[in-house]
Amino acid sequence: MSPEDLRKWTNAYLIELEAMDSIRLASDAGARQWNKHVHRMQRAQLELRKTADGRAAIAAMIAHPMPTVAQWSAAHSLFWAETEARAYLEILARSDGVGSFEAETVLREFNAGRLKMDWEPMRR
Prior knowledge:
Elements: H1 3-21, H2 28-48, H3 52-60, H4 67-77, H5 82-94, H6 100-111
């Protein structure tokens, strides 16, 4: 992956996660918006995970201050930066705060070998 492509896909990944952070899923419209961003984020994640630099870019976002960015990045990074990702998710799971249930679920599914983060998004 060229440095240009790395920047492009990293930026796309981050933009979609930041957009997802502001969506409230209480309405059908919110859920539809969320799904569109998830599919675009997933396309970027699939490209980034192909290279060591791309995987490192995702893992670096575990430290991002925005919860949605950090949590999704940790979930994706379990497959190549397990120590850092697991540490973040375990703290979040024990927090009883926003995202604790999701972090607990991600860890349970990963530990059981059922977490799948290489799924192909729908084309629109």
